[in-house]
Amino acid sequence: MARIKKVLNTSVVLIEREGKEIVAFGKGIGFGAKPGEQIDQSKIDQVFLSAEDLRMQQVLELLSNIPEIYLSMVQEIILYSKQHLDTELQQSIYFTLMDHLHFAVERARKGINISNRVYWEVKNYYPEEFQVGEYARVLVNKEFDIELPEEEAANIAFHLINAQGSANDNKDGMKKAKMIGGIVNLVRYHLNTNLQTDSIHYSRFITHVKFFVDRFLSGHLMEEKDDELFEQISTLYPEAMNIAFKIKEYMQEVHHQSIPKDELTYIAVHINRLLKYSELNR
User: What are phi and psi of 191, to 5 degrees?
Assistant: First the structure.
């Protein structure tokens, strides 16, 4: 049995269930409710956030200072993201996104624009998250009759990127976007050609780089187990392997970590596809 401990607003209440404090979301869940009353389970949405999972005092302060309209918008944005992103989001996204949107609207009303230094990378390397960010930007603009810049879609996308996976994953969106951008720019420079960003080969390459960066940041790079394949790819695709070694040097110099041969092998395979496609379109 759950009872109301505190009413935060008409859509959010703090409840106590089995000796634990939980933040419960639901339309009209707090309307007319009073502390000590048993909660109407039918009004609770699927979102529950335990005090063990979040810094409860910060959450309570955040919810008490942000108008309820932001909760409604975030719920709509999360629903849209679930329909367009093939991944689960941490529950904390509700709070971080509410806080971000509230601050973004305040900045817009004051004419303050903070540029996103990796806008291009986010838009091109995380198109699905960027699409959700653009949906959110349009929603906010319409609700508050303001004009958030297109860069704001990338800012929102950052929160979605960071909320993917478990809470213990290394999911720093800014760091990931910069790392991906650095690798792709290095490949572009050494290929000495304009990459066809709408090609399937480019798309596969970007996907591989994104997974490589995920493994790199989480400390789960592939082990050196297939020397024979490494030697074979080095012989068959020497130019692609040479670029792969440039990536290894870049990661060693900038991020102070070496890349195993198996990772270089698969990077070279994808670079070779780009090479072949570029040559056919010259």
Answer: -75, -25
